[in-house]
Write a structure and sequence with these properties.
Layout: E1 2-10, E2 17-27, E3 39-49, H1 60-127, H2 132-154
Antiparallel strand pairs: 1-2, 2-3
Helix pairs in contact: 1-2
């Protein structure tokens, strides 16, 4: 009668492997000359295999394959970086455009309000409730608003 068992495992470092085995053998005999009956024979073994020269030297074909794989990986990383940079630039350009459009809208509203203020101040000067210097100040603000509109339209 035989009972055997074992286990083998690859080691994650260095490419080696471990194995453990237990072999049991039981022999029974009907002979009167046998010293022991039944006889047991057990064997426990442990082995560690480390291939020392694996990948020690490779031929030129395998070397070119490895170089090609590394170059492909580098190209993949560069492509991903280019895609990421392009997406970032497109996003930034979009938000710059949105900012420019909104700046023009704000500057246009500012010009409209400044011109309305000039008209209101002129009416108040004609009625006599405001000094003429206030009209000049409102005209200055309107000119500044028109200048800001021109700058916003150029960007």
């Amino acid at each position: 009668m035989t009972f055997n068992g074992g286990i083998a495992q690859s080691v994650p470092w260095g490419g080696g492997s471990l194995s453990l085995a237990l072999n049991n053998f039981k022999r029974t005999t009907t002979s009167n000359n046998a010293l022991f009956n039944p006889q047991f024979n057990s064997n426990l073994s442990f082995a560690y295999v480390q291939p020392l020269l694996r990948n020690f030297r490779i031929d030129s074909t395998r070397q070119q394959l490895q170089v090609s794989k590394i170059n492909r990986d580098i190209s993949d990383v560069q492509l991903r970086a280019t895609i990421t940079n392009t997406l970032s630039n497109v996003r930034n350009a979009y938000w710059d455009y949105v900012f420019a459009v909104q700046s023009v809208e704000v500057a246009t509203k500012s010009v409209t309000l400044a011109e309305q203020l000039v008209k209101d101040n002129q009416t108040r000067v004609e009625v006599g409730t405001m000094a003429p210097i206030d009209v000049v100040q409102a005209q200055s603000q309107a000119a500044t608003a028109r200048q800001n509109l021109a700058v916003a339209q150029q960007t």
